[in-house]
Amino acid sequence: MIADTSATPTQPAPYRYPRLRRLAIDVALTQIFNLAAALVVTYVLQLNASLTQNIVVSVCVGTLMVLFIDGGRLLLWGLGKPPLLPFMLIFLAAVPAARHLGNLLAGFLLGVPPELIGAVRGENPVAFYIVFLLTCIGVTWFFFSRAWMQQLRAEAEAEKARAAAIERQALQAQLQLLQAQIEPHMLFNTLANLQGLIAVDPPRAQRMLDQLIQYLRATLGAARGDGTTLEQEFRLMQAYLGLMQVRMGSRLSFRLQLPPELAPLAVPPMLLQPLVENAIKHGLEPKLEGGTLEIDARREGDVLVLRVSDDGLGLDEHAASAGTRTGVRNIRERLQALHGPRAGLALEPRQPHGATAILRLPI
């Protein structure tokens, strides 16, 4: 807190005072117009004055004009676009004031009477005033149009931010819809099994109910959140597999391998469950002797690789299932919505038999 407080007063002044910074930039840019006007007066109008004298007069008049017009704009309307009519009134008042005071200042700097400066410019008054007004209009139009363009850019950025917010809301709704498709049927299947066990094997039904409660506790936070950690996701899968093990008995065994350094990584919630559920339902459960399911995580550079592997009936049984296709499609749509082409899901055969689902997520 002390460091943050002490850093504020040392912030550079131009950034703490954006209007003064803008005015300083505008004054500096005006000198280009001043130099151009002095060259035109000297070599085109060919008035009876040197280039140095014309540059001094042009700088004095032009700088005061910008201070009056642009300074007034920044003082009254800040960095935004000013209303046209009040701005034109400022312009009409500033032009003669800048010319009169600029001549006085130039005369003082050059050591000549201001009347002499006015007399020199009176040698060709029509051409001089045309050049003077064109310069004033050009400088004013430049700064006015720049403020207008800045306002258009600000409005475009605001519209872009609104569109991004709407897109994020739509994305969140899509993710919640896809996630909601994963949860209900597993719960219904478990309750149906529990209903059947109550009549024929009450102790086993009690164990299944205990595991179901443990699973629901584990999934309560993950199922409704925007994200979770890999450790929480593995804990959820352990509770789910414990529930399935009560149902399948010795026909199901499982191993979970999560390196400690990967445990805190953030991952989308409920990402592994449809893959684990498909592996059991279409790979291990239909197999008479059952089998083993393995879940592991590893890091490959800046990519997190998650594998769900079983030694069940094989990839053909997985691919033939409509449920598997729906679960895989949902996962791929979630990954596409969250990470685009940087994430993906692949299904591969496992040798000598079984199937492996491989998830790749950017870290």
UniProtKB/TrEMBL annotation:
It comes from Noviherbaspirillum aridicola. Keywords: Coiled coil, Membrane, Transmembrane, Transmembrane helix. Residues 149-183 form a coiled coil. InterPro entries: Bact_2-comp_sensor_kinase (IPR050640), HATPase_C_sf (IPR036890), HATPase_dom (IPR003594), His_kinase_dom (IPR005467), Sig_transdc_His_kin_internal (IPR010559). Pfam families: HATPase_c, His_kinase. The chain crosses the membrane at residues 23-45, 51-72, 84-106, 126-144. Residues 271-363 form the Histidine kinase domain. This is Histidine kinase domain-containing protein. Gene3D superfamilies: Histidine kinase-like ATPase, C-terminal domain.
